[in-house]
């Protein structure tokens, strides 16, 4: 984490407590950098005007008392489909342009209560539907490693923000890979926790049974701290589980690589997988084996149907969840309609982008009378099989490894005309959502073009701590390098020479 | 089942009813907004019931409890697992674009309710009861060309109670609804207030020749009083029979009752029926019935109306009709029984005599004032604590029954304690032998011809003499004592 102040969350906490820097200084640094890179990367949709004030207040408080948490004063960016009171929450959609939130998402408010400082809300594919952030109504985010390429999606803004060094921590949401795939494309760690680990209250729903909030960070420890802070039962979300978040910290410390059994679903490493990604993965496997990790081949016969199942279930739920955007109570309403029906149709036609409309139509179809049995219900049955197969596989291994994405970051417009090929970029990540399992993407070096490659780890329910322990080892062997915009060698666009006290 | 069923122009009517009743919870079904009628528009709302982005439903346990209670009261089975689903349609009063309801797996199944009509007692089976949320209300009054929406009601807990198609006449339908409402009130599940929309009914009706298979059914919506249910059904029965006799086929459709014309009008046909795209709500885990709650509700079940009627008949000697009238109004029944208990605490009114007066007083005076003025007459100055002593004065002979009625009437009108009115207007009854004797003699002296006729056998004139004495005393004479003296004076009529 190349910034003038700290290299990790723990380093930040030390520096803060030792008075190496003020929170105001740090906050101003990241905000300035955010503004300077807003044209080149376009990671953010709105900036928190109150961030510097909050930093100053925290600085004052820290003169009197000890910081309650490592996260006190830590910069944070939040995907713009999570509510932050008094800020806008647009979901990168025209239909919510200018919409101000009345409340703060539980996950975010738990970080805020520990003292995190929200710098900005980040760009995404409209309503989190997409794998490239090209579906944002407010323009795409560019990959800090190569601005001609996409950062992945849908949480592309949050991934690019950490990669570009405009924040050390950000939040995304993951329905089919929306944290992990952009994490891989941007060369950072991205974690999708177990379904029910983190409250969805305040997360604008895409597919409620699959959505889960998770962090982007550079260090595994930092991601762990963020998840622990956000996790736990929430009276506002009946799908949260009453699990003790501390179990993750415990597992993280306790996991020992020499005893670890790594599951390899070899059947998934065939057709469609980019050659250099396959090579990177082989190297990671050798590296882990050198630490005593033992490989087990696992078979997931229905995993290949994940994409089919996902695009029935996720679109069905999405079509339902997006019914509320009707122009009646808030958000965009098309003017001059002659009738109620016309108002609905024009509002939704003008308010939603193409991909969102495509998914609403797919989902409406999949749930409609006469088709529900063939599509929605059938998909639910296959989903149950996939989950069962994963749970059985975890009786023979502790962690399953796959690539995060079958391809490296692709160029803009490369896949926008071919939705199916775009959907296939989630082929490795989708099954974790369908099975409700925790999974993450950790960088494992770069391919021959110098683009980052991500390794995908899936674990049994509630094993986030274990997954992050493995990720820490991979990160140790292949330290994250940072893209050009992240370098501080004089080409830094805003010059931070005097930053350090 | 057709045997002995009422026929309409030679057709049998087959009816099933769907009742939506609002539950008496403190807060709404899926958020913590107040569940209350009559607040200014859009003041009982929050991000959840306004369907703001990011909001999630959180189930109200009290609604589940009341649903279980209603189900147990009607003999339903509490299903161990039930599922909330989403029912989709677009309308401005439905903020999420879907209603959360239960569909394939309701909270309660089975059950029945006994109805009593001229055709006798019958059991109407209840198919299911399930929980769902109410919608808001569109308001079209006020600014021209504009509609408004009030979302105070959006998210209010509802119990939908679906009968089997066991009802065979408008009378039975109304009796079923009245008894169902009684049951819901007696168990404090709902206030059953039809004017405020907390008890609403949809009618599914078809006709057939006796013994024939079911005809095509028509659903009638928006029928919001017992009278309208009766009227809508009579009209729909005629409409369907007319159509069949004219050789037409009945279309499966939804019709709307228009109270102003007393007719039903088409709303949408089967072809236009909405595809609600039901599917399990992923925000709400399956509802697992809490056995502790079910047992608590079973144990705490209050006496149900049917049993209460029996008890009043058996222990107090009421007629079935009188007992049903009293039990039919939950508040009146409570008032009545409170009075019965109070009667036993006063020596003069202990035993049957005071009770008979009380029954007739409640069924005439109190019922009339209740219907006219509402439940306020059951509390305050005319609560049982002050009304029972008034009955006491009747039993002890200090007041005539008609005087007591007048006093009560006045007390209700003026909001005063009845006993205060008695003492203020010097209404004490004339019971003194001498005074009464003088009055009786005066009346007999004034009517020699009638005395003659009475003695010759025209015994119906006895009441005439009593009336004369009462009039002369300005109603203060004790009619029973007057009767005794008259009998003595006149002797038995010749037979």
Q: Please describe the biggest sheet of chain B, giving its number of strands, its sense, and whether it closes into a barrel.
A: 11 strands, mixed
Using only C-alpha atoms, the radius of gyration of chain A works out to 21 Å
Residues in helix, % of chain B:
25-40%
Shape of chain B: elongated
- Continuous helix count of chain A: 16
Number of self-contained structural domains of chain A: 1
Structural class of chain A: alpha/beta
How many individual domains of chain B? 3
Chain oligomer state:
heterodimer
Proper CATH architecture of chain A: Alpha-Beta Complex
Q: Provide the CATH topology of chain A.
A: Amidase signature (AS) enzymes
Walk across the major sheet of chain A and give the strand order: 1-3-2-4-6-5-10-11-9-7-8
Strand content of chain B: 15-25%
**Integer average pLDDT of chain A:** 94
How does the SSE layout of this entry go?
The complex is a heterodimer of chains A (501) and B (495).
Chain A: H1 9-17, H2 23-36, E1 44-47, H3 51-64, E2 75-79, H4 106-113, E3 117-122, H5 156-163, E4 170-174, H6 180-186, E5 189-192, E6 212-217, H7 220-230, H8 246-254, E7 261-264, H9 275-290, E8 294-297, H10 306-321, H11 340-351, H12 354-367, H13 373-393, E9 399-403, H14 419-423, H15 430-434, E10 439-446, E11 452-458, H16 464-477
Parallel strand pairs in A: 2-3, 2-4, 7-8, 7-9
Antiparallel strand pairs in A: 1-3, 4-6, 5-6, 5-10, 9-11, 10-11
Helix pairs in contact in A: 2-3, 5-6, 7-16, 8-16, 10-12, 10-13
Chain B: E1 7-8, E2 11-22, H1 61-73, E3 77-78, E4 81-82, E5 84-88, E6 98-102, E7 108-109, E8 112-117, E9 120-133, E10 137-139, E11 148-150, E12 157-163, H2 170-186, E13 199-208, E14 218-223, H3 226-245, E15 253-258, E16 263-269, E17 279-280, E18 287-288, H4 291-299, H5 305-316, H6 320-328, H7 330-343, H8 352-373, H9 384-395, H10 401-414, H11 418-424, H12 433-446, H13 448-455, H14 462-472, H15 479-490
Parallel strand pairs in B: 14-15
Antiparallel strand pairs in B: 1-2, 2-12, 2-13, 3-7, 4-18, 5-6, 5-17, 7-9, 8-9, 9-12, 10-11, 13-14, 15-16
